[in-house]
Design brief:
The chain has about 525 residues and is α/β, with parallel strands linked by helices. The chain is built from 15 helices and ten strands. Strand 1, helix 1 (about 10-25) and strand 2 (about 30-35) form a beta-alpha-beta unit.
């Protein structure tokens, strides 16, 4: 089975970021190839997602059995001793990297398709694209600035090249020698530039490949897509007339996109399953950046909802028989507040809730014990599990774990903060772990505290049931489980500090893990 997840544009990258959190929690298939498409290679949203992907890849590499500290990810997904943490293997789409940029940083449409045109072609070029920096000479290094038709032209030109790295790589993954199923999930926005242009363009190219008469894996490739409707707004640009999209343009652009998809579904079966996600009222980002590093929007709740669609699609089997209609998945709610039951994905409360609890417990409880030893062990439950190992000899493993745990808890905290009053009661509450001296900014709304004066009550309130109450299995119960049943919780072929990690992960379940 081959599974591929591709985020197109900054919004698509942010949904991939949320999906990486679900993969870290053990939700999803066995393995996923992850890619990001964006013209703006310096985009802050894209780079944060790529950094998180590399962080998870590093964690899986260093804990995967190559050292004396390892985590047991062997066996199938239902194996009783398998550790859920990080159990969905992620691979970068191009082996050593995940990002594909269609064109060079200093190119424009004039450079790409506006050269050596006949008079008739020049007239058509001028008719379709505004002259000057508005469109024809718009420098594409920072993306397509909400101009989907500019992006579509550039992307199509790139895909028509004889040796297109993206198309060649996807064709190789789709054309399996043993006719195994291939599932490809695309996600992008209907209102931006790169996403709005690249989402349908790439989907139609993949559909063309799988329906080609010479394609040998016919009937085995499934294509799914999540289209993000407008769900956030931003401040007006500092200068009038800048070639950027504004908030009041989002809904008209989305309407045009939906009309296009309606016609597309009538004429060709590009998608096997299609998801649509939006939010009203919009989340207000409070700032505006056209692109580059400064465009690093904080995590927003709709991206997690969209990520559940990716996990659901990549985890199911598809009947490849012809259907007249494309299944379109819609999810709507009218009451205030967010609860675990609002997410259309089985097991998300138990697994994502456990991951968030583990991340907090590791950072603020377990790590503090790793440098401590005593003659008889005492309350240091890590000592009998790790034996005589010292952290200084396992820095790469421990640093990679700390990075993943910090990213998970930071992402959860930022998602909660940006949802504001619409969060209550909320599936989690990271408030007890925040740095109260942090000066909030639109791109960095919260920061984690280095030390927490009262970590136990903060942990007890961290994950909430749908009734708004915290789970009973709090910090005291976790500690008691680790002290009294550490060996049992560390079961499996985990070794060294991997035994400490496995025990901590199982102990921080929302329920008592000893019977599981």
């Amino acid at each position: 089975m081959t599974n591929i997840l591709i985020g197109i544009g900054g919004t698509g990258a942010k949904v991939v970021e949320a999906a990486l959190g679900l993969f870290t929690a053990g939700l999803g298939p066995q393995t996923v190839h992850v890619g990001v498409i964006d013209q703006d290679r310096a985009n802050g949203n894209v780079n944060r997602t790529l950094a998180r992907l590399k962080s998870l890849r590093r964690f899986q590499r260093v804990w995967g059995g190559r050292s004396s500290s390892s985590i047991d990810w062997s066996g199938d997904r239902s194996a009783p001793n398998r550790v859920g943490l990080g159990s969905v293997t992620v691979e970068e789409l191009f082996g050593d990297r995940a990002l594909w940029c269609p064109e060079g940083d200093d190119l424009s449409l004039t450079n790409i398709i506006g050269q050596d045109l006949s008079p008739q072609q020049r007239d058509l070029f001028d008719l379709l694209f505004m002259p000057g920096e508005q469109e024809q000479d718009l420098q594409l290094g920072e993306g397509f600035r909400g101009r989907a038709h500019v992006g579509a032209a550039a992307l199509i030109a790139a895909m028509l090249e004889d040796e297109n790295e993206l198309v060649d790589r996807l064709r190789d993954l789709m054309q399996t020698a043993d006719r195994t199923p291939v599932r490809i999930f695309l996600v992008g926005s209907a209102f931006g530039g790169t996403g709005a242009a690249g989402f349908p363009t790439l989907a139609r190219e993949l559909h063309r490949i799988r329906t080609d008469p010479e394609f040998t894996n016919k009937g085995m490739v499934s294509i799914g897509g999540a289209l993000m409707l407008p769900y956030f707004g931003f401040a007006r640009p500092d200068k009038d007339g800048e070639p950027v999209v504004t908030t009041d343009e989002l809904l008209p652009k989305a309407q045009l996109a939906l009309e296009y998809y309606g016609r597309l579904f009538e004429t060709e079966r590009t998608f096997d399953k299609f998801y649509v996600m939006g939010w009203d009222p919009f989340f207000n980002l409070g700032y505006h950046q056209p692109g580059n590093f400064e465009q690093r929007n904080p995590p927003l709740l709709p991206e997690l909802f969209a990520a559940t669609a990716a996990v659901e699609f990549l985890s199911q089997d598809f009947d490849q028989q012809d259907r007249q209609d494309v299944p379109v998945m819609l999810s709507a709610r009218t009451d205030s507040g967010v609860r675990w039951s609002d997410f259309p994905l089985a097991g998300i409360a138990d697994k994502l809730g456990q991951l968030i609890r583990f991340s907090a417990y590791w950072l603020y409880f377990a790590e503090q014990l790793l440098n401590k030893t005593s003659l008889f062990g005492g309350g240091n439950w890590t000592q009998p599990l790790r034996g005589k190992m010292k952290p200084v000899d396992h820095q790469e493993e421990l640093e990679s774990l700390r990075a993943v745990a910090y990213e998970v808890l930071s992402w959860a905290a930022a998602t909660q903060a940006t949802t504001k009053e619409r969060w209550s009661p909320g599936p989690w509450d990271t408030g007890g772990f925040l740095d109260r001296t942090h000066e909030s900014a639109p791109t960095d709304p919260v920061a984690l505290a280095t030390n927490v004066a009262a970590p136990e009550p903060a942990f007890d309130q961290l994950i909430r049931a749908d009734n708004g109450e915290p789970y009973d299995h709090g910090a005291a119960a976790v500690y008691e489980s680790l002290v009294s049943h550490g060996e049992e919780l560390a079961r499996g072929n985990n070794s060294g500090y991997g035994r400490v990690v496995a025990a901590t992960y199982r102990a921080t379940s929302l329920h008592d893990e000893r019977a599981r």
